[in-house]
Write a structure and sequence with these properties.
The protein has 461 residues and is an all-alpha fold. It has 19 helices and no strands. The longest helix is centred in the N-terminal third of the chain and has 37 residues.
Length: 461
Amino acid sequence: MTDYAKNSVKDNPLGTAPLIPLIAKFAIPSIISMLVGAAYNITDQIFIGHVVGMLGNAATNVAFPTVTLTTGISMLFGLGTAANFSINQGAGRIEEARKYVHTGLTGVIIAGILTGLIVFLFRSPIIVLCGAAPAGNVYPYAMAYLSITAFGLPFQMFAHSSSTIIRADGRPTYSMLCTVSGAVLNVFLDWLFMYPFGMGIRGAAFATVLAQILSFTLAVLYYPRFRAFRLSIKELGISVPHMLSSMAAGIPNFCNHMLMIVTSIVLNNMLATYGALSVYGSDIPLAVSGVAQKTSMIMVSFAVGIAQGCQPIWGFNLGAKNYDRVKGTYWRAFAAAFAVGVIFFAALQLFPRQIISIFGTGSDLYFEFAEKYLKIFMMLVFFQNIQPITVNYFSSTGNHRQGLIVSLSRQGLFLIPLLVILPKFFGINGILAASPISDAMAFVLSVSMVLVSFRKFKENE
């Protein structure tokens, strides 16, 4: 390590600044970015719910797994690249950090183009797989929405990955700007296209794509001013060892998002099947589930924002062997995420009808099921917030296997099996009970694994 590198590591605020202000500095812009990013989908849901109605809400729910897919791929490249960049920067390996950034950017560009193309070409079977029957009421709305939003997926993936890398470069405010600017444009264009222009659900789709292009443009404009070192278009390319290492760091979050897709597909099909056997029918449960997913995005945005804000702190201090700062950062993030979850839980239990009404109108049965869904299915939401904190902690500290286990636990080990088994005995109420049971089991597993990892720090010391 050169003298310059030693001094830059020693003087870096990631390794010396008080933890709570440091976490706030990185986490608050990240939280705002996540909240505003969620606004892409929430704004669409609100406008569509009021302009198109319940079938529009159901259609965006059916198309939502493609958003989860692109977010997962973005995190596979973005979080993995940022984690390795931070660890190598903390250890003073500047040239290695540079190679990770060039490789990660190349990977997400290629992946974005391929993903957008595949989603567009196979949009019809994707919609059917996600719960909309070809002859049903929801299918044409979902088809119209996804046919347009598929073109924005490459832009959204690059912007999302870049926001993580830019934050790791010490510019959380600019990272936030990339997301916020797109969301603000999205809100304005939603109103313009759906009300004055009367474009319906297609207007919401066009608004989303144009907003994603703006976020993409701002991300591209940042890289010539990268802080840690100079980046060059000529150096873009795939280094297989660096790509595999970044993907290993990002794989827990990627797998978590892939499981979210599988869970969404299973949940939608279970709701449609057992809803048809109940007084609610198949369309009402699908519409309610879509609204609930968008509502929970607000809470999850806080947790993921806190976790992403902590990523540079975890990675840098692990590389610098400041283990007490690694542990202290985790417990402070844990406390903040849990507190947000408790507040969200109280709002869902006390004001379920008012929350649902934000997303449009419906029949008495629609509101009856919606209140039931929010109170039971989302009963232990404060436990959900701990999983993204824990997954990002393991990913950022190079514990990829543990991160993968935690990321797979809630949906893969617990929720999906319960969604299949419980309705056989309890009907649609069994679907609602599956979520809180899964949340409790995943919480116990996450905390137990973190405590084990902390013991290893003591051995290293």
